């Protein structure tokens, strides 16, 4: 059997529940590698836009919004590059998205000189500050098989002093780990990115897109799919499925979608394919404004659907592990649009970081604020005289140092006031905030994938006994790869498509950089800095 001669592919339909990067990648792999006609592929998305967490919206008049920004690593994103080497960029059809990224990162390499700051002073983040006990705990973690870790938390594995080291602050604010998160996920990250361990403080190994990921990656991929006939059903929230058990396994026979016109039923033939993104890190997001704080939602459509189908199918995982403790999975970000660029210029001068260099974390902040000033323009439609930067905080429920209220209760204006305090320019607030807009975003499930878990809590991409249903995204189990990455979503899509179509093509393996002697030696030296 070859990938170009699957006996039933032209007579089968494929249904994607959710319009995030996992579904878009899955649709592309069906067309590119499975030879499925695009018109046989249907993507159901409750919003009026696809892309999921890889978002970027707005204009200079109404302000821009990015809920989060994904970072990339060329040595480690095997499936992502496999896909985007074959997707044409929006700006030049003759060049791939990957080629444009390569060129951008050659001319805008990351090198953070000021990764950590405290009370206006730059901290030498190259000094990780690990003690012998900390190094022993890391070594013991790497040598412990993942199943033996179970649902152990980071704060249960490492002592309290570890969580006060420069290494932890650098690590936690790059990857968004919290002390109560799964230590098994830390172990996976250490193996996956061990080659970056010596340069975490400079972020030299981090690569970025020319614009935000929606403009640079989602739009080209969506256009590629539309050109091949893939249909996007916007305003379609899949709320339930009919999954029928039999001696041969479980088969999806029907989807139920809520639309503006009411409930629609989508019949699914036994030979059709259903790909579901179970859970979403940006589900339930709430957007505030310059003078309005965002609300906190405690559920979302993707979680409710997953819970519904897992109730009678235990092999479909345990969504409650990830979705039922919003206080531990939420954090808040904010996007700032500046027509008056004085605050933007002050951040560049204060941190001594040129736009595009990296991430600055303010250790004196009770919220643990960080800012990212990307290379400008960060949006394809952004004028030269308008600037944009992004920030976030890992502890939005703590009282601020300046505004004396939790970030979660703050308006965009109050968030900027708190930031200006840590930038030591609060005496200039009226002039700095004139003609500036800050849009906060509360994301209740943004780190749900890091929650302590047991084997089986995440379903396999294609569960045992599933005849036509596969799971995609951050909550489908993929051994050795790491969640909270675009790669994890794309890998899940490639795995699902290749397995469901029984393609004679292998998914690129997770590269074992940690086995290279030079990587190990450099990591050991860095641990003693």
UniProtKB/TrEMBL annotation:
InterPro entries: FAD/NAD-bd_sf, Oleate_hydratase. GO terms for molecular function: FAD binding; oleate hydratase activity. It comes from the Archaea. One of its GO terms (biological process) is fatty acid metabolic process. This is Oleate hydratase. It comes from Haloarcula quadrata.
């Amino acid at each position: 059997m070859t990938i170009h001669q699957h006996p039933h592919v032209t007579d089968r339909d494929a249904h994607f529940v959710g319009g995030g990067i996992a579904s878009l990648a899955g649709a592309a792999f069906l067309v590119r590698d499975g030879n499925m006609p695009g018109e046989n592929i249907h993507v159901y998305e409750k919003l009026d836009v696809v892309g999921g967490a890889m978002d970027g919206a707005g204009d200079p008049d109404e302000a821009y919004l990015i809920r989060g920004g994904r970072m990339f690593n060329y040595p480690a994103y095997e499936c992502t590059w496999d896909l985007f080497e074959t997707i044409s960029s929006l700006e030049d059809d003759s060049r791939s998205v990957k080629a444009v990224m390569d060129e951008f990162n050659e001319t805008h390499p990351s090198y953070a000189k000021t990764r950590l700051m405290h009370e206006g002073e730059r901290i030498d983040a190259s000094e990780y500050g690990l003690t012998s006990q900390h190094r022993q705990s890391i070594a013991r973690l790497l040598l412990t098989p993942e199943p033996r870790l179970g649902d152990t938390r980071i704060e249960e594995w490492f002592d309290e002093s570890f969580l006060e080291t420069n290494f932890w602050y650098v690590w936690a604010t790059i990857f968004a780990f919290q002390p109560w998160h799964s230590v098994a996920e830390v172990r996976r990250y250490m193996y996956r990115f061990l080659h970056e361990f010596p340069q975490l403080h400079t972020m030299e190994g981090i690569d970025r897109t020319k614009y935000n990921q929606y403009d640079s990656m989602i739009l080209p991929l969506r256009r590629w799919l539309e050109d091949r006939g893939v249909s996007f059903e916007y305003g379609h929230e899949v709320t339930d499925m009919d999954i029928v058990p039999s001696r041969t396994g479980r088969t999806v026979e029907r989807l139920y979608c809520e639309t503006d016109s009411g409930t629609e039923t989508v019949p699914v033939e036994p030979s059709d394919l259903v790909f579901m993104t179970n859970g979403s890190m940006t589900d339930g997001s709430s957007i505030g404004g310059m003078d309005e704080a965002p609300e906190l939602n405690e559920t979302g459509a993707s979680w409710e659907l997953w819970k519904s189908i897992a109730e009678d199918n235990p092999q479909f995982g345990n969504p409650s592990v990830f979705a039922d403790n919003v206080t531990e999975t939420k954090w808040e970000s904010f996007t700032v649009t500046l027509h008056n660029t004085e605050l933007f210029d002050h951040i560049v001068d204060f941190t001594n970081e040129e736009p595009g260099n990296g991430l600055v974390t303010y250790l004196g902040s009770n919220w643990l604020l960080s800012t990212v000033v990307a290379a400008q323009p960060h949006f394809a439609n952004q004028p030269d005289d308008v600037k944009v930067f992004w920030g976030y905080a890992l502890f939005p429920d703590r009282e601020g140092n300046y505004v004396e209220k939790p970030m979660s209760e703050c308006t965009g204006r109050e968030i900027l006031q708190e930031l200006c305090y840590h930038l030591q320019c609060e005496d200039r607030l009226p002039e700095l905030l004139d003609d500036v807009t800050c849009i906060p975003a509360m994301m209740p499930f943004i780190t749900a994938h890091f929650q302590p878990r047991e084997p089986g809590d995440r379903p396999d991409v294609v569960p045992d006994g599933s005849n036509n249903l596969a799971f995609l995204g951050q909550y489908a189990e993929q051994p050795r790869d790491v969640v909270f990455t675009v790669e994890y979503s794309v890998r899940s899509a490639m795995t699902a498509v290749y397995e469901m179509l029984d393609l004679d093509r292998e998914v690129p393996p997770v590269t074992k950089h940690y086995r290279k002697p030079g990587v190990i030696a450099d990591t050991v030296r860095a641990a003693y800095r």
